[in-house]
Amino acid sequence: MPGNPSDTSEVSRIAIAPDVMDYIEKRDCDFRVCTSCGGPILLPVRVKPPKKSDLLLKAAHHTIYVSIHQARFLDEIRIDMIPFYEEESAGYGQR
Prior knowledge:
This protein is of the alpha/beta class. It has helices at 18-27, 68-71, and strands spanning 15-16, 31-36, 39-44, 55-59, 62-66, 76-77. The strands form two sheets. It has a four-stranded mixed β-sheet. Strands 1-6 form a two-stranded parallel ribbon.
């Protein structure tokens, strides 16, 4: 399994917002914090698979894989790290 469970010093200080915990439980899958052009982003592992270098953070019955490149900058995993797309903002609702 990918990830580095032995290095807990970096991830032990990272909090997970309650609304993110609810989101993860509803989606019922593992997630990964990775780098995007807009900063850290939280995606399901089926979209962005974990890497061997990722740090592991437990989120109830699931795991959040945290990129080592993001771990040092994170204090909390927040709901605004999850990309949400609205059809109008993507140009689908416009005529």
